[in-house]
Specification:
Elements: H1 9-17, E1 23-28, H2 33-44, E2 48-54, H3 56-66, E3 74-77, H4 81-93, E4 99-102, H5 107-115, E5 128-134, E6 142-145, H6 155-171, E7 178-182, H7 193-206, E8 214-219, H8 221-225, H9 227-232, E9 245-247, H10 251-264, E10 268-274, E11 280-281, H11 289-308
Parallel strand pairs: 1-2, 1-4, 2-3, 4-11, 6-9, 7-8, 7-9
Antiparallel strand pairs: 5-6, 5-10, 10-11
Helix pairs in contact: 1-11, 4-5
Length: 314
C-alpha cells in the first residue's frame, strides 16, 4: 500500500476525534510487532486506551525487542490466540472495554468469538465489514461494503449491510448518506439477481425498512461515481456522482474493487466490522500506519455515536 502525506480526508476525520476521550479497547493477541505497534500508535494519538490480551510473557517480549513501551497499559494474560479472543470478547461483555481490536491472530478466530451464541457479542444485525477509503481522485471519504465477511449475501443480508454502513456514515458526520447499489448495469433485468435486489432495497427504503440514507440502484460503477456518465445515459439520480457508500453485489466484487482503488488509484483504506455490540477494528500487517490509525479513529467515532444514541450503530 502506498502511503501519502499531507492533509487529506483521513486527517480531517482524525481532527474530529480530538473532541472525544479515548475509548477503552480490548486488543486480542497483539503478539507480533506490527499488531502491538498499531495499538500503541493509536493510544499515542489518544484514540484508544488498549487492554492487551494474550500470553503476557510473549507480549512483553515483543514489546522489549521492538522498543515499544507498554508500561502504561493493562495486560491480561491468556495462554493462546483462541483464549485471547474469548477473553477480549468477555471484557467487552463485562463493560470493561467498549471496542474490540484484532491483533496477530486470524480474523476467523476473533470473529468466531464474537458470534458465539452464549458468550459472544451478537445483536439482531448481521455482521458486515466496511472499507472506509480515502481515494485521491474522489471528493470525499468513500465507504465500500461488504468486501470481507458476507460471501454471497441475499436481500435480507444486504438490508443489514446497507443499514450498518448508513449508520456508520452518520457517525462520521454525513447528515444523509447516499448509497449507490452497484450492479453490472443500471437497469432492472430479471436474469440478473443483483439488479432485482437493488430495486427491492430502494423500495424498502421508501417503506422505512432501511432508514437514514438515500438509496439508488441498480447503478453500474461508472454511473454511480460519475454524474457525467449518468447524465449521458439519461439517469436522473440524487446519488449518481456523489455517493458516500458503494454497496457491492458480493464479496468477490467488493474485494476486487477495494484493492483496485488501493493499488491503482493510490487509495488508503481503513477497515472495521459492524453489527456486533461494539465496532471491531480489523487491521492487517499490510496496512500503512496511516490506515491503522484511521481504522481506530473510525471505530472511536462509531463507539461515541453509539453511546449518544438509543439505537446502537454497530
Amino acid at each position: 500500500m502506498v502511503t501519502r502525506t499531507g492533509t487529506g480526508k483521513y486527517e480531517l476525520l482524525l481532527e474530529r476525534c480530538r473532541a472525544f476521550e479515548p475509548i477503552v479497547t480490548a486488543v486480542a493477541h497483539p503478539c507480533e510487532k506490527t499488531a502491538l505497534e498499531a495499538a500503541i500508535d493509536a493510544a499515542r494519538q489518544r484514540l484508544i486506551t488498549p487492554i492487551l490480551v494474550g500470553p503476557e510473557a510473549k507480549i512483553r517480549e515483543v514489546a522489549r525487542d521492538a522498543g515499544i513501551d507498554i508500561g502504561p497499559y493493562r495486560v491480561v494474560d491468556a495462554p493462546h490466540s483462541h483464549a485471547a479472543a474469548a477473553r477480549a470478547v468477555e471484557l467487552v461483555r463485562q463493560g470493561e472495554a467498549q471496542l474490540l481490536m484484532k491483533g496477530s491472530l486470524h480474523s476467523d478466530e476473533i470473529l468466531g468469538a464474537v458470534v458465539a451464541r452464549e458468550t459472544g457479542l451478537r445483536t439482531g444485525r448481521r455482521l458486515s465489514h466496511v472499507f472506509i477509503m480515502d481515494v485521491p481522485t474522489y471528493h470525499k471519504v468513500l465507504i465500500v461494503t461488504d468486501a470481507a465477511i458476507n460471501i454471497a449475501p441475499g436481500l435480507e443480508e444486504k438490508v443489514d449491510i446497507c443499514q450498518n454502513a448508513i449508520d456508520l456514515a452518520i457517525a462520521l458526520g454525513v447528515q444523509t448518506p447516499k448509497v449507490a447499489i452497484l450492479a453490472a448495469v443500471e437497469t432492472v433485468n430479471s436474469k440478473m439477481k443483483t439488479t432485482l435486489e437493488a430495486a427491492a432495497l430502494c423500495k424498502m427504503a421508501d417503506r422505512g425498512q432501511i432508514t437514514g440514507g438515500i438509496l439508488d440502484g441498480p447503478l453500474a460503477f461508472d454511473n454511480a461515481i460519475s454524474a457525467d456518465a449518468a447524465k449521458m445515459k439519461g439517469i436522473k439520480s440524487a446519488v449518481a456522482g456523489d455517493p458516500d457508500i458503494l454497496l457491492v453485489p458480493d464479496l468477490e466484487s467488493g474485494n476486487m474493487l477495494a484493492k483496485q482503488l488501493t493499488f491503482l488509484a493510490n487509495a488508503d483504506s481503513a477497515g472495521i466490522v459492524l453489527g456486533a455490540r461494539v465496532p471491531i477494528i480489523l487491521t492487517s500487517r499490510a496496512d500503512s500506519v496511516r490506515s491503522r490509525i484511521a481504522s481506530c479513529g473510525v471505530a472511536m467515532l462509531a463507539a461515541h455515536a453509539r453511546t449518544r444514541s438509543a439505537q446502537p450503530i454497530a
